[in-house]
Design a protein that fits this description.
Strand content of chain A: 15-25%
CATH architecture of the largest domain in chain A: 3-Layer(aba) Sandwich
Strand order of the largest sheet of chain A: 1-11-8-7-5-6
CATH class of the largest domain in chain A: Alpha Beta
Number of strands of chain A: 11
Number of domains of chain A: 2
Oligomer: homodimer
Low-confidence stretches of chain A: none
Helix content of chain A: 25-40%
CATH topology of the largest domain in chain A: Rossmann fold
Radius of gyration of chain A: 19 Å
Largest sheet of chain A: 6 strands, parallel
Structural class of chain A: alpha/beta
Shape of chain A: globular
């Protein structure tokens, strides 16, 4: 069993990005600039955003952190989005989700200029990813694809079982795994809460991608020997062992499953660190105008 | 075995559309208007377009048929698209594919105002369909979903195997079959040319949707008893029995497969007639501004 070290790969990719930014700036080019909008004080969101801003500094990006109270109206938030759309210095930006209930998330996402949509959530980017056109691929699926590439995991003709059909992981990663070329060309099965014979299907999988948000859902009895297991789950569960009082728990029962795997991602330190790195990569692409002119 | 009579369902849906159009017009509303652009003289395309225009007349739509020689430049064609985008009388329009090699199809599709994109090929509609937002769903997958609905075929928790990963059928139908609600909630496996154990996977299918364009590809040995088989293939093969000198052949070996099925679509007369009907439905929705204001 080989552990997929997402932290190490993320550090490596960050170094590559930092080197490229240094080169761009040395040649008199523009420093990539990511803006992040956060609304309210959700603990998880604030941690993520702080981490994103810190990562920007690490790779030499300019970053703007815009925090609003959860009393902001939808109209006001849409005006802030419009300002960033029109700010030529901002290459890409994201609106951290979730938003307060009185704001329509989809409306906000669709208001973002798709050429600056580095989260890849705008329908144009979702559609272009599906069709196979250049696009901003959303961060978590892009991070998974990068891990598969860096570990040279074979995907062509492999049976990949995706557990979960969310818009941000299950659906896009399924689309990427069936696309032509590497990493892709996999036979993909998408399972979810309505799937009846989940164990039977999982036992056929050469690659399992678990993205349901249910701690320890994938058991050893569901995994065949030699499978590759990618765990996207990051549920916070109470813990007496950490200062914060919680720890991150994956969708895979690591103790039971890991001995059977050829490769497996741990939680934390697997897919998680790659997510922010994918956002940085998209911002670099936005700065270089590589996806959209 | 019950035959899914796409012709009969298509006629029924056309009558429903015609009744609705008559009611709209009787109330002083606007007659829905579909425009079709065709470039060159591809035999298949000319037949399809003629059939689309005729169907418009049957349901009481206004239709505009714009035919250009294949000497038209990309710039000229884009200008025609722009004219239709700006014509307030045209509710929806399509550019019949394929286009001549000197014209970038994707560029033309993306130039269509997504609010008039009744073929559902624009990335915004592809993305919105994937996310589960209101959208113009492309005609063939929409037609398949309609057949499933009209025949009240159970899909929740069923294993649906899609053979083919094309942008116009395989990918979108997979996305629709995993969506929440009915028809949907299926466990979906997407197979394609790189799939290794196709027979084994197909034998698990409660529903097979074949969309690869290889005549008689799905054999009796690949289908379990009681399966539902939807045949999207419409390859023209030479025939001495028809005046035209060819006949349409599906992806399913009907003689071998049909005795094992609970339901099966014939070719012709299955999915084919539903495709045009879905285009008419999208045009009606466009006329009523039901998807986009």
């Amino acid at each position: 069993m080989q552990l997929i070290d997402g932290k190490a790969i993320a550090d490596q990719v960050k170094q590559e990005i930092a080197a490229e930014v240094a080169e761009i700036v040395a040649k008199g080019g523009k420093q990539p600039h990511l803006a992040v909008i956060i609304v309210g004080h959700d603990g998880g969101s604030e941690t993520y955003v702080a981490s994103k801003v810190k990562s920007c500094q690490q790779v030499g990006f300019k970053s703007t952190h815009l925090a609003f109270e959860d009393t902001i109206t939808e109209v006001e938030l849409l005006a802030e989005v419009e300002k960033l759309n029109n700010n030529p210095d901002v290459d890409g930006f994201i609106v951290q989700l979730p938003l307060p209930k009185h704001i329509n998330e989809e409306k906000v996402i669709e208001a973002i200029d798709y050429r600056k949509d580095v989260d890849g959530f705008h329908p144009i980017n979702v559609g272009r990813t599906s069709i196979g056109l250049p696009s901003f691929v959303s961060a978590t699926p892009a991070g998974i694809m990068e891990l598969i590439k860096r570990y040279k995991i074979e995907t062509s003709g492999k049976h990949c079982v995706v557990i979960g059909r969310s818009n941000i992981v299950g659906k896009p990663i399924s689309g990427l795994m069936i696309q032509k070329g590497y990493p892709g060309d996999a036979t993909v099965t998408v399972c979810h809460s309505r799937t009846k014979n989940l164990q039977e299907i999982c036992l056929q999988a050469d690659i399992i991608i678990a993205a349901i948000g249910v701690p320890n859902f994938v058991k050893g009895s569901m995994v065949k020997d030699g499978a590759v297991v990618i765990d996207v789950g990051t549920t916070r569960v109470p813990s007496t062992e950490t200062k914060s009082g919680f720890r991150l728990c994956g969708d895979v029962d690591f103790k039971e499953v890991s001995p059977k795997c050829s490769y497996i991602t741990p939680v934390p330190g697997g897919v998680g660190p790659m997510t922010i790195v994918s956002l940085l990569k998209n911002t670099l692409l936005a700065g270089k105008k590589e996806i959209f002119k």
